[in-house]
Design brief:
Elements (H helix, E strand, L loop, with lengths): L2 H14 L9 E8 L5 E8 L5 E7 L7 H12 L3 E5 L1 H4 L15 H17 L3 E11 L1 H11 L5 E5 L13 H6 L7 E6 L8 H13 L3 E6 L15 H18 L3
Parallel strand pairs: 3-4, 3-5, 5-6, 6-7, 7-8
Antiparallel strand pairs: 1-2, 2-4
Helix pairs in contact: 1-4
Amino acid sequence: MKAALVLTLILASLGASAGNAAAGDFTSKTVTVGVRKNMEATLYIPAGSGPFPSVLVMHTSFGVTEADRGYCANLAKEGYICIVPAFLRAHGIKEEIRQKAFTSEAKSIMADFVEIIGELNALPQAKHGAVGAVGFSNGGFFAAMLAALHKVNAAVSYYGALNGAGTNGDLHRFKERFTSASAPLLILAGDSDATIGTQPPTHLAQILKDTGAPYELKMYPGTGHSFDRSGSAPNNAASAADAWPRTLAFLRANGV
């Protein structure tokens, strides 16, 4: 059975039992998705019949954590179908060899994401054509790439590993792909990010400006890497509090 059909049946079943649910309620389910149907993911479905916009959430190099699941749950409370796939695990990539995500496995990971986006679009409760992407660190690289290729309506990159863990130092992959026809991208980063640094997000913003691609850049002062989930930089909590409504506003303003 194709993954898209599996998701359709799951969502139809869950939706049928949610008739009396309150606004903000949601259900979640473990599903298997991707080109090879070997990628475990958690699917979050708002209560009701929809149609709902959808968001693909992409994790950091540490894999899916409770922070990712919580983020998806919060999106579901806001009326979004949301899916968070364990994409690194499906490709046999651990944190210590994370560079493979940006090199030998990058093409197949992107193919999986495009497949998942198609599956989300095909769900009966989904608002067709209203799919966004949100990525964190490792996933932030792919959020930017999905925006570049206009595979989503809009994308948000939280402290994205835009230099591909050193494999995309001059951001040449983005230079080659972003055009004025790319989807809008929101870049969220901290000026005290010791993992990524400040140069990649500002450099990407310049690339987008030069190509005419739609974008917004928010550099948070006194803010480090993983500011929404860890770290001790002084402004992490305040930056995370700003990033959430900023993300929602950006997605909604761009058809998601």
